[in-house]
Write a structure and sequence with these properties.
Layout lengths: L3 H13 L12 E6 L5 E3 L2 H8 L8 E3 L2 E5 L4 E5 L5 E6 L13 E7 L3 E6 L6 E5 L3 H4 L13 H11 L3 H6 L9 H11 L12 H20 L36 E5 L2 E5 L11
Parallel strand pairs: 2-9
Antiparallel strand pairs: 1-7, 3-4, 4-5, 5-9, 6-8, 7-8, 10-11
Helix pairs in contact: 1-7, 4-7, 6-7
């Protein structure tokens, strides 16, 4: 699943131009086609087509793992889920049906010969067209890269939950945008075991963890995310994983063998020496 760095990479490409496409802001939407109606979480297909046509893309933004396109009157929200991706095609007049790809679920035509395609082989991705984006985003936690999230506030949130660190950091209502890859990487950088209870962290440990989260996310964004399978391509962060998908290999810090366990039904990678259980070093 694309996580915060991968989604941010796509957002920047749609906003500024990149990944072979042109920027979307300022372009009017000329029409759309829905090939898989269940892609639309809200509204129904007929209403979606009627409402989105004629609106102009004002900007392209990110909130957690959501892509947010504020339009003239509404907001278009997209969650890529397991296998979703977005691309911008340049199409010639009269050739709007050319160069389509298998699994294109939603097509949106814009002025200047652009077509935004939502491709989703597994059909888990979703779109919302709503008057107020808060209808969809209201329950998300703070952005990990936001300056308003201080170490003290982060520590207070950790100790108030009393949950294992790994599943807590994956909880989007606790912290928006974290996923399996960057959580494993951040916990290793912070030298914290994934099963450690969040209420046992002191302020210093919380600050170290927050800094680690920010460091791995920023590096992930700088490297255009991580490409580890066919779902997301173009990233380079996978070339420098600390522990993720390195089961049985030597830890780059201490040389101990990286282990894999299941935490909340998620494969979790850690170093038993760098990340001793209960934080005992």
């Amino acid at each position: 699943m694309p996580e915060l760095p991968e989604v941010e990479t796509i957002v920047r490409a749609l906003r500024d131009g990149g990944r072979g496409g042109e920027p979307l802001p300022g372009r009017q939407i000329l029409g759309a086609r829905i090939s898989w109606e269940r892609t639309l979480a809200e509204p129904k297909a007929a209403q979606f087509l009627a409402r989105i046509t004629g609106q102009t893309v004002r900007s392209v933004e990110r909130r957690g793992k959501f892509l947010l396109l504020p339009l003239t009157n509404d907001s278009l929200l997209i969650h890529l889920r397991m296998s979703g991706d977005l691309r911008v095609d340049i199409v010639q007049e009269g050739a709007e049906e050319e160069n389509l790809k298998p699994h294109d679920r939603v097509l949106i035509w814009l002025q200047d010969g652009l077509r935004l395609a939502f491709n989703d082989p597994r059909k888990f991705g979703r779109m919302w067209l709503v008057a107020d984006s808060a209808e969809v985003l209201a329950n998300l936690g703070p952005e990990p890269l936001s300056e308003s999230l201080t170490a003290e506030t982060f520590h207070q949130r950790l100790v108030s939950k009393k949950r294992q660190l790994k599943p807590l950091l994956l909880d989007q209502s606790f912290l928006a945008g974290m996923g399996n890859i960057y959580t494993d990487e951040a916990l290793h950088m912070a030298r914290l075991h994934p099963l450690m209870s969040s209420d046992t962290l002191n302020v210093e440990q919380a600050e170290v963890l927050l800094n680690a989260i920010r460091n791995v996310l920023k590096e992930g964004i700088r490297r255009n995310g991580a490409s580890i399978d066919w779902v997301y391509r173009g990233g380079e962060f996978q070339n420098d994983f600390r522990v993720y998908q390195r089961t049985g290999e030597a830890c780059q810090v201490c040389g101990q063998i990286v282990q894999r366990i299941l935490v909340g039904q998620r494969g979790t990678h850690f170093c038993p020496t760098c990340q001793p259980f209960e934080g005992q070093r």
